[in-house]
Amino acid sequence: MEEELINGELLEKFEEEAVFLKETAKSSVESTQKAALNRRGNALLNDGDVENARRIFITTGYSDGLSRIGDYYKKKGRLVDALRMYWTAHDKKKSTELCMELSIFIKSLLNEDTTSGGGGHG
């Protein structure tokens, strides 16, 4: 049953994720299916298959899993991807902290550009 959920049509309808940040709607997955998918996603994440775990967690709207994926991305320096996961997980604390870090980084880049004469890129 669990394998059918993963390999079947359930994930296919969530295949396209071209949006930068998107809210997760209430999952249409039944609670028993959701629990099985979340267990599978946790197993995949523990085995290092982050991208398939991410797909499952987005499908089920599993906020803890999405937040953990965000932590993984942040550790790997994929800050925009981390922000996307925190935002989707509705993890306000982590998304706010990361936004602050990114704003400080962008401000330092702008200040560096200003002090070096600016505009010499490209």
Structural commentary:
- This protein is mostly helical and 122 residues long.
- It has one domain: Serine Threonine Protein Phosphatase 5, Tetratricopeptide repeat, CATH 1.25.40.
- Helices cover 69% and strands 0% of the residues.
- It contains seven helices and no strands.
- It has helices spanning 2-7, 9-12, 31-46, 50-60, 63-75, 79-88, 92-115.
- Helix 4 packs antiparallel against helix 5 (63-75) and helix 5 (63-75) runs antiparallel to helix 6.
- It is elongated, with a radius of gyration of 18 Å.
- Mean pLDDT is 80; it is low at 1-23.
Q: What CATH first level would be assigned?
A: Mainly Alpha
**What is the total domain count?**
1
How many extended strands? 0
What share of the residues lie within helices?
55-70%
In percent terms, what proportion of residues is strand? under 5%
As a whole number of angstroms, the C-alpha radius of gyration is 18 Å
Number of helices: 7
CATH fold node name: Serine Threonine Protein Phosphatase 5, Tetratricopeptide repeat
Shape: elongated
CATH architecture: Alpha Horseshoe
